[in-house]
Amino acid sequence: MNVQIREMVLDDYDAVLALWRDTPGVDIRPVTDSREGIARLLARNPGLSVVVMNGDTLVGCALASHDGRRGFLQHVVVAPVARGQGVARTMIDICVERLRENHLGWVHLDVVADNETASVFWQKAGWHPVETLTRLSRKL
Predict the structure, then answer these.
(1) Can you give the residue ranges of the N-acetyltransferase domain (predicted)?
(2) Quick one: which of 10, 13, 80, 132 is 20 to 30 A from 39 by CA?
(3) What is the pLDDT of residues 103-119, one digit of tens each?
(4) CATH 3.30.930.10 fits 3-124, yes or no
(5) What's the pTM value of the predicted model, to 2 decimals?
C-alpha cells in the first residue's frame, strides 16, 4: 500500500465521517464532530490534524488540538485495509511532534471505556492511564 499523510482540510470531512461511522468504538458527537465543529477545530489548530490517503481513498485520520497548555489527540482511526502497517503510529508521531512545537507539557487522549482494542493499542504505543484523574464532563 502506497499511502500519503497530509494535513486534514475541511474538504476531507465527508470521507472522515464515513471512516468514523464504519469504525466500532468511535464516539461521534453531534456538535463537536459536525462539519461546523470540525471546521472550528481546524481553524483554531491549523496544521495539527492529519489524514492518510491511499490514492484517492481516505484510509486514516487523526485530530489534534491544544488549549495552549495541553495537547489532545482524538479520533485516531485507520481503515481495516491499512491496519498493521504502522499508519496509526506514523500519524500519532506526526501529530505529537506538531503539538510539541507548541511547547505543551502533555498530550492527552480519551478511549471509550469498553473499547479494549483501542486501549491495548494505546498502551502498547507507550500511553498509560492516569489513575489519579477522573474525567468529568458537562454538556453545553
Answers:
(1) 3-140
(2) 80
(3) 998 999 988 888 888 88
(4) no
(5) 0.91
Helices 13-21, 35-44: inter-axial angle, 10-degree rounding: 120
- Residues 12 and 5: their CA atoms lie apart, in Å, by 13
pLDDT above 80 (res 1): no
Q: Phi, psi (5° rounding) for residue 82?
A: -110, 5
Alpha carbons within 13 angstroms on the beta-carbon side of residue 86 total 7
Q: For 43-73, what is each residue's pLDDT tens digit?
A: 999 999 999 999 999 999 999 999 999 999 9
What's the grid cell of residue 25?
Answer: 468504538
What is the signed CA dihedral for 129, 130, 133, 136, rounded to 10 degrees? -40
Amino acid at site 121 = F
Compute the distance between CA of residue 35 and CA of residue 39 in angstroms, rounded to an integer. 6
Q: How many residues does the chain have?
A: 140
- φ/ψ of 19, rounded to 5, equals -65, -45
Return the H-helix or E-strand segment holding 92: helix 87-100
- φ, ψ of residue 15 to 5 degrees: the values are -70, -40
